[in-house]
Amino acid sequence: MRTEVIVVGAGPTGLMLAYELTLAGVPAVVVEKQRTPSTQSRAGGLQPRTAEVLDLRGLLEPLLAQEPSETTGGHFATLPVELDCRPWRTRYPHPVNVPQVRLEAHLERLLGEQGVPVLRGHEVTAVTQDPEGITITWHADGTPGGGEARDGGEIRGRYLVACDGGHSTVRRLLGVPFPGRERRMSAVAADLTLASRSETVPTERKHFSQYTRVAGGFHAILHPIGPDLYRMLFGRLSGQGPDRETPVSADEVREALHAVYGPDTELGELRAASRFGDAVRQVERYREGRVFFAGDAAHIHMPIGGQGVNLGLQDAVNLGWKLAGTIRGWAPDGLLDSYHEERHPVAARVLRHTRAQAVIMNPGRDEELGTVRELVTELLGLPDTNRYVSGMMSGLDLRYPGVGPRLIDLDLTTEDGPTRASRLMRSGRGLLLSLDGRRRSVGDRSDRVEHVLAKTDEDVDGAGALLVRPDGYLAWTDTDGTPLDTALARWFG
Question: Is the distance from CB of 8 to CB of 160 less than 8 angstroms?
Fold first, then answer.
């Protein structure tokens, strides 16, 4: 099989990347080791910036139609202060209630409708690069869902993007180091039903801080995620536990439920469960020749506040248009390398603050750390501190070097009537938005930059025109003193 881009991993990062490439007209193939999609909830919601990114492509509305969004603010280290994202001028001031499993199913369905192969049950066994492209060898016991059984084969492409998780096969086969810190604790994430419950079990959605409990040598978070369905995170206060590959038993979950929520709380059905730890790692370079790393294949941290999905989806949207531009021949020098330059520091920052949160969460309720929790809780009550932390946790404060902030989703009036700025970017192209009535030229770049005249009553810091990259960040305004053509050439060739 031949394609342009081989995407290894059918999690949210890999599926989103394949979708971005497809929007740009670049053929891609997704290769996934697991024969069937995971049914475990994993990340239970999306951070506001992730919601905005999905909205840029028109992907969010169908997901929100299935279930109402959250109405409580985010959290930092499970402290009892809601993070307020309203100062960041977002349409999604709260985390959005879209479980990871639903997002993955939606993306995979869209790829199927567009004829993009998602090859499940295909384990990558070799990766070889040469000056012209890259070849993977895969092995499979059979073809899921029917069809002719095959033992294996090869796929040839120009580039490969490893989106295959924290235990990336691609990273291992290439011998790419994954420096960082080993895990110091073991915990469990489980989806379950309850046959009976005590009064200590929550029955409605609340701020995340209200779900945390410590008792009987365990720390636990139990919260509803659907009709009669709960997600439970738990571990021993000692931090000890089996290694990641050891299956989670019903007896293990039952012991934690009884210890924390009392003997009246009885396990019904254990739907799915997995183990996680607090290891912190990041590859030194996001590019190795024709191979790129994204999502958990590039960085891992303790799962707190949906940060992994937030990082992975933005990795995909940052890389997708740059990779497409390179393949289609219009990318200026250095554009593809800017993926590492922009995204590596972002993940490094997340690794730092998730490590800090792991300490502040203090499940053992150490007395000295308890005073730190009290102080940080007071600080989060200050508007400036809350704004800073909410921007950091939500991803709304992100700015790349030499690039402006994200595009605010302005209410606009165009020649075609009222619309929103996000709806002008669903094609995956760049956007030149003229708000002063002046027509401007994008030269011979109309295949990758759309020019729209519009009006708005909202504050745009005095700008009469905005140039927006496909990932939703401002590349130029007419107030920064740089000629428009210079900015166009820098980002769009």
Answer: yes
Q: What is the pLDDT of residues 450-488, one digit of tens each?
A: 999 999 999 999 999 999 999 999 999 999 989 999 999
pLDDT of the residue at 70: 58
Q: Residues 5, 156: contact at Cβ < 8 Å?
A: no
pTM of the model: 0.94
Inter-residue contact 340 to 284 (CB < 8 Å): no
Q: Would strands 218-226 and 430-434 be described as parallel, antiparallel, or unpaired?
A: unpaired
Cβ count near 103 (within 10 Å): 24
CB 161, CB 294: distance < 8 Å: yes
Strands 159-162 and 180-181, how do they pair?
Answer: unpaired
CA-based nearest residue to 30, from 148, 144, 115: 115
